[in-house]
Amino acid sequence: MAGVTPEPADRVARWLLDGPAQLKDGPGAGGVIGRVSAEEPPFIYPEICGYHLSWLAWLVRWSPAQREAATAAAARVLRWLESHDRENGRFVTRVHRPPSEDWRNRAEFSFDLGMVLRGLDAATVMDP
Question: Which of 100, 120, 97 is nearest to 49 (CA)?
Fold first, then answer.
């Protein structure tokens, strides 16, 4: 990747893999949160799950040494997406923990669904 030294890129990768962006356990384990904030509870954001899967697929190609960690993280996202709560047959846009009302969950956004599908497609290159 032109213009990026490995050290900062590796630090960002470690933060995304090991930091608070992906829930490791409890309700929503495997989901990727929409923001990291000490003031507000996290919400799982399926659109970001799609971006995360796309990034993980890129990481496998860019840094083969991180393949195991990346595929494990992708497997967690995929398990969460499979178990994702749906309301009245719709894909919920933001899954709040603890649950709360969000106007965005009264609609289904094509862009969000597109990003999830793009991430799922990207993840297919991660098979061993």
Answer: 120
Cα 16–chain centre separation: 10
* pTM: predicted TM-score of the whole model, two decimal places: 0.86
- At 115, list the tokens: 């990003």
Instruction: For the chain, give the percent of residues with pLDDT over 70.
Output: 91
Q: How many CB atoms lie within 10 A of CB 73?
A: 25
Measured CA to CA in angstroms, residue 109 lies from 21, 82, 88, 94 at distances of 22, 18, 15, 11
Question: CA-CA-CA-CA torsion for 55, 56, 57, 63, nearest 10 degrees?
Answer: 100
